Amino acid sequence: MEEYHWSLKTGIARTIDFEKKQLALFGVTCGIKCGNGCLYCYMSSLLRMHPAFAQIGKNPFASGYAIVDLDTPDRVTRDASRKRHRGMVQLCTFGDAWAQEAVQYDIGRRCLEAILSQSDWTVRILTKNAVVAKDFDVIERYSDRIFFGMSITSTPDKASQTAIIEPNASSISDRIAVMNEAHKRGFRTYAMLCPLLPSVADSPDQIDQLVKSAVDYGAREIFAEPVNTRGPGLKVTQEALAKYGYKDEAAAIKNIRNQKGWSRYTTQLISNVQRSVRQLSDRRR
Questions:
Q1: Is residue 249 pLDDT above 90, yes or no?
Q2: Which of 106, 117, 149, 226 would be 266's cystine partner, CB 3.0–4.6 Å?
Q3: b/e map 141-180, b = 16+ CB within 10 Å
Q4: Mean of pLDDT values over 251-270
Q5: Both 5 and 92 in a single domain?
Q6: Using CA atoms, how far apart are residues 247 and 13, in angstroms rounded to an integer?
């Protein structure tokens, strides 16, 4: 993994999209290119015109490198003390504060401490990396002001497929284990089932497993999303799955690379999730 550094301008900023999803009022961005390397990720399509890519001479849609902002905790510290209007902060909106390029600088931990050292702030943690458990001491200290979650994108039996399309993230089994440990410690947890890819995590049985797991780790909220089709991510995902012999999964991805297929997949996904939550949990969640 090649690592590049770039200083952004914002620390804690309003986030309209996450507010619409009822996730958070504010967000923190810790970089421009996340090192998790998820093939389906659409974020590069939103940031493709950022000057950082031209300066380092990299294709925004290429893999194998990360762009992290080492100054993020300093700006978060500044904003956490200055802002008068406060509320829930998503850590993070772009990138992962516990991805390999960020965790070596303790970016997630330092941001958590900076935000929560000030009153009236709460934090929603979201990561794909089990190394976040090393910061459970901080989360325990502020547990009444934190919602803890890990992005769960498949059932454990699809571990091989997930390892291909999320090459630098922790395994699904490790993520679920961290969620269970968080629940045992009394943390406020939520489920983020996102994205639920076709033939990887969208069947009724798979969704039932994911919802049952969320119930087991005490999820107070359950979020689920289809994959975003923006950018070349789905094409890359399809090609990678086919390369490693997962032809059915690759064909399912191909089928949603058009509006009609994606709409059919999304409608069925919503129906399956709602049915499962009604049966196994509480639809109000």
A1: yes
A2: 226
A3: ebeebbbbbbbbbbbeebeebbebbbbbbbebebbbbbbe
A4: 98
A5: yes
A6: 42
Q: How many CB atoms lie within 10 A of CB 200?
A: 25
> Same domain, yes or no, for 80 and 13?
yes
Last residue of a domain, one of 148, 181, 207: 148
The C-alpha atoms of residue 88 and residue 147 are separated, in whole angstroms, by 9
The predicted-structure confidence for 138-169, as pLDDT tens digits, reads as follows 999 999 999 999 999 999 999 999 999 999 99
Calpha distance 210→214 (Å, rounded): 6
Per-residue pLDDT reduced to its tens digit, 97-124? 999 999 999 999 999 999 999 999 999 9
Domain count, the chain: 2
Residue 146 is predicted with a pLDDT of 98
Q: What are the tokens at 131?
A: 């190394």
Residue 258 DSSP class: S
